[in-house]
Amino acid sequence: MEIPEIKPSIENTVCLSGDEVLSTLRDLLSSPNVRGVYAKIFGKDEKESYLIEVLTDKSRLLAIEATYVQKKVKKSGEEAIRKLAELADIPLIVTAYALDDQTFKLVLASNIDVYSRTPAVPLAEVFRRKAKETIGEAITEAKEEKEEEIKQIIKKTEEIKEEKGAKKPEVKEEVILNIKGKNNTEIPENLRRKVEDALMDYVRIVKTDIASNIPGAQLKSVKIEGEVGEGTLSMVGEFYIVAENGDPEIMKRKGLFLLHKHVPKIGRPTNLKPIIRDFKVNVVVGEEIASMEAREREDVTLWRLTRPPTTQLAPNLYLTVDSKFKQYFVGFAKTLLKEIEGDGVLVDKLEIEVFGGVREFEINIYLEGKSKDIDEPRLQARILSIAKRHASELTKIVGKYVWINRVNVTLTRPLEQELSAKAAEILKKKEEIEREVEKMLKEAGIEELGYLLEDKKKEMERTLITSRINSAVQDLKQRMQDELKAIPRANLRWLKVNYETNGNIIEVLIEASLAKLEEEGLFGALVSVSDDEIKRRATEMITRILRDVSRDHQVQIRIKKLNILVR
User: Fold this and answer.
1) How many helices (H) and strands (E) does the chain have?
2) What distance in Å separates the CA atoms of residue 139 and residue 119, rounded to the nearest whole number?
């Protein structure tokens, strides 16, 4: 049997008979906070050694499993009860765990198969003297009580159905799609049609899958509201699944699983990342309605209304985040500020907002500052690149998807007096060196020294280009490793990146090996992706990283050879 990690209330207590075992269990059950007891009972006869695990409530045996140690076989239900009754007249060793209400329910849910096979026999009948002579009758009575209980439940259910027969809810067969842009802005008609076609295909696939995986069920009503953002499609949906009979709890869980399973198919024809903001499944079985909701992240509107106070981490650094998650994002904010200032930007104000926290985090970055050498688009791209890299690392740490939603940059050119003292000192030294060079030119001969300076200039240019190329290649390797490790259901085995230079152009030769993984999804089904799908994702990632690195390092990079292996 499966139980969570809890400390035993009593451990390796020797009981000389079944009566003592019963007394020990009742002492634990007498506490008002105890709902039930899980116990391990060790016994031995001339044939075999036994480990018997039992779960009880205040008066009855609810689940039992007996392990025959030498034979290495397990028995449960009626046969295990009979064996325990046989051992009730010999000394037994007991280890028992008192369970509160929550833990009791958890243990019961984890061992539901054993519980379903066990007649609810009174504890007094199992542990009495000579119990093996009377246990058969107790088992029969427990079975009859259980059958009678089931009959009463069925009868009551049928009566309720008859009473509510006229109130059976009606669900129209319809598909309603509402696609809009951010802040209710209009989107191009061709993009709208593309998104609507992708959603209709999604609905058809889900309908077919529900009909084949949930017997007698049908996806009847669908309502999806989609918001097209910058490369994303955020969705709020409500779905009605209708069936004549069946378990609504199982149906709504299976239905929600199938709705999630096919969401990635929306992204392929639209080139938009589909994000589930809120999916609600309503299951109608006869006249009964059961609902289940899954949110991809907290409601942004609600978050704004209950927004936590902003923390000032430095004179020019502000972080807005729920206090529960602050520890994860303080380092992110400070590192981002340090790297931006390292690029020669005078930061007046850097504000970082972190949304969500249920299943993912969304980050918005706002920068106000001054820069002499970099313009707003280049700085925005640079910040986005840095933030994405650190967000990828945070995803692994917090176990939730962290992504960058928005980067806003406002720059002005700095006044001369606003330059740092160090920068002013460097400029002064530069002027002094230039005057010294002019003096040397006059003394040593302009032509000779000019020739030497020209060679030195070319050498410095080559060194500068080489340094930039090496920096770009190292950044490229690091980003590829980080991104390829994040491909779902695949492990990066190894990555080789070689390069050749053709003038100022870097030609890269990339080889990567990925191992395909199979993971257990809902209901025990093994889930994996095809080799082609993994290759497609890897190729898209590598192409995007090349573009980002080229832009960040101001060098031209192109692929000479790309080989992706999937095993």
Assistant:
1) 15, 22
2) 6
